[in-house]
Specification:
The protein is of the alpha+beta class and about 230 residues long. Helix content is about 50%, strand content about 10%. The structure holds glutathione.
Length: about 230
């Protein structure tokens, strides 16, 4: 059984851009996108909560050949699944036979999508999303320090040779890591020149340009009257 059509629920420059970017790499523009206006609270509407009880983006809907609709959550899982689904595009080392390339690749998808993401989300909610009275400056400082001291050196070592996060070749892990590095940069992290080189390489990709064409619709700060809806 195959997938007839993909539909991505998305908001500009957020974690759904990881998946939008990869879909552009794999399918050009041949998929559907619905913007979920997060700053208007659309992620809390009953219809959307049926799809995604975590009230977030991305949500990926797959229309299967037999008419079934499959809904998937979690950007890291989507990136892994989509890259594996199109092996001819060469954006993921094959799972078998087991080897170092696949191990490095999965490690980077999960390091970006869970470990780094967790720190950046805490920095973000306590800087721009929660109402000011609920923000905790100590949390922001703790994760900024940890990110700089522990995460950045690992990334710099991988990126210093001038390639991509898993080596010389661009992979789907870069769709996730690239968005995450841009997110870190928006919060004053990843300032080393090695990151500028990485960004200048991946932003030249047409699929990146297509995925970020809506960047102008994104603002870091949620409107004050909406901040109480964000719960971290
Ligand atoms: N672990 C999830 C996190 C998704 C997530 O939290 N997305 C944010 C945007 S970057 C969101 O939609 N937040 C809306 C809310 O929390 O109400 C993933 O990677 O897919």
């Amino acid at each position: 059984m195959g997938v007839k059509r993909f539909k991505l629920y998305h908001y500009p420059a957020t974690r759904s851009a990881r998946v939008k970017w990869l879909l552009h790499e794999l399918l050009g523009d041949d998929f559907d996108v619905e913007v979920v206006p997060l700053y208007e609270g659309a992620q809390h509407e009953a219809k959307y909560l049926e799809l995604n009880p975590n009230h977030n983006v991305p949500t990926l809907e797959m229309l299967m050949d037999d008419g079934e609709r499959v809904v998937m959550l979690e950007s890291g899982a989507m990136v892994t699944m989509l890259a594996d689904a199109f092996p001819e595009k060469g954006l993921a080392p094959p799972p078998l036979p087991l080897g170092p390339a696949r191990a490095r690749y999965l490690q980077m998808v999960h390091f970006g999508g869970s470990w780094m993401d967790m720190m950046l989300w805490q920095i973000r909610v306590h800087t721009h999303l929660l109402p000011p009275a609920a923000r905790d400056e100590r949390t922001v400082e703790r994760y900024r320090k940890k990110f700089k001291a522990e995460v950045e050196p690992q990334l710099i070592e991988r990126l210093r040779p001038g390639g991509y996060i898993c080596g010389e070749a661009f992979t789907a892990a870069d769709c996730l890591m690239g968005q995450t590095v841009l997110w870190a940069k928006a919060y004053g992290l990843c300032q080393n020149e090695v990151f500028s080189g990485y960004v200048s390489r991946f932003t030249k990709r047409p699929a990146f340009t297509a995925a970020y064409a809506d960047l102008g619709d994104f603002t870091l700060e949620a409107p004050p009257e909406r901040q109480a809806r964000f719960n971290g």
